[in-house]
Amino acid sequence: MKRPRGALRRICVLLLAGTAGLACAQLLDSSAEGSGASVNSTVQEYRKHLEGLDALVGRCRKQRTGEACDPYQVGANDKVLWSAGGTTNGVMSGAGAVRTIRYDWLRDLLERAGKNETAAPAPGMRLQLQGTKTAPVPMDELLAEAQQRLEMDWREAGAPAAQAQDYGAERRSLAAILARREYQGTSEIPARERFWEWLANKIDEFFEGLMGFGARSPWLGYALELLLVMGLGTALIWALIRLERRSRVRLTPESEAAAHAPSMREWPLWLKDARAMGAEGRWREAIHFLYWASIARLEQMRLWPADSARTPREYLRLLKGSDPRSAQLTALTRSFERTWYGGREAREHDFDAALKMASELGVE
User: Fold this and answer.
1) How far is CA 90 from the centre of its chain?
2) In DSSP terms, which residues pair with 82 in a beta bridge?
3) Which of 5, 35, 115, 264 has the fewest other C-beta atoms within 10 Å?
């Protein structure tokens, strides 16, 4: 049996998508382990984390070994709620915003220090004028500056935040500047751009949280891979079932028809008898001949091999699937069964409805 090319192409696309999904999951896991995830922290937890980092840098300065300067000991980044109302016993009070404190600079510094580098440049920690050349900064000095930076962050986190001030004068001054002629042509950012920026931020937060959860729960990656494989297997089975159903009804090679098959008599003759019965008011017989005219028409189109032993329901099962003629043949079969086998009295409007359904099957 020859399978349609389009269905095979869809199966290949599903398999490629599964391979890409597995690679993406592994990439997310490796990215979460390498860059450090972010965790929600109170101010007290954040200060305790800074104390641990200060001790870690101190040990690295003394020993300068790969174990003492292991960058993975830095831990996750901190997401701290900063408030304008200050802190009370290490807990923020008042409204505020969440700020993410990243330690990528410290991980990079510890990694270089663990390799026993005697001197190295200091990106992000010292300014260098363009066009000037400076000597590499000793690693011990960089570690000392890192401790100073951690101590400064520790003091700033413990100090009470500045109380809310009245910025009315500043706002009035800014409004006066914006009212000048050179700013008249400016306009605020369109709502569409603000929406896309908000959506991009939400997507970043989602993937950041996903990487953090994956770093804390390694089993999640294996569960996602298992679900992906199960989904691909289900999709493959469903596609094969669809292929099997579509292959049921297809053109068959011409073969010797059964002696009493409907196609042995031309469908126009069946239709002629149906119209003759209708002219005499014998609507039950007219619907009977009209049904077999439809069956002969479909059989002569080689939708199935000729067989005189089939029942009306078996003809319906041959057309199940996506064939557009299935609905019309089903309605015509029900009308024929009600009047011929069920003993229901047929009228002219029943014959007219059956004639319309037969014409959509090619009997006209």
Assistant:
1) 41
2) 97
3) 5
Summarize pLDDT for 54-89 with one digit per residue, the tens: 999 999 999 888 888 999 899 899 998 876 555 544
Q: Where are the beta strands (DSSP E) in the chain?
A: 38-41, 77-83, 87-88, 91-92, 96-101, 119-120, 137-138
Strands (E), 126-246: 137-138
**What's the mean per-residue pLDDT of the chain?**
76
* DSSP single-letter state for residue 345: P
pLDDT digits (tens, 9 = 90+) for 171-228: 888 888 777 776 666 666 788 888 999 999 999 888 887 777 766 777 777 888 899 8
Between the alpha carbon of residue 127 and those of residues 133, 160, 326, the distances in Å are 12, 30, 78
Nearest CA-CA partner of 30 in 214, 208, 202: 214
CB 87 within 8 A of CB 93: yes
Residue 45, number of CB atoms within 10 A of its CB: 14
Q: Are 318 and 248 in contact (CB under 8 A)?
A: yes
Sign, CA dihedral 42-45-47-49, equals: negative
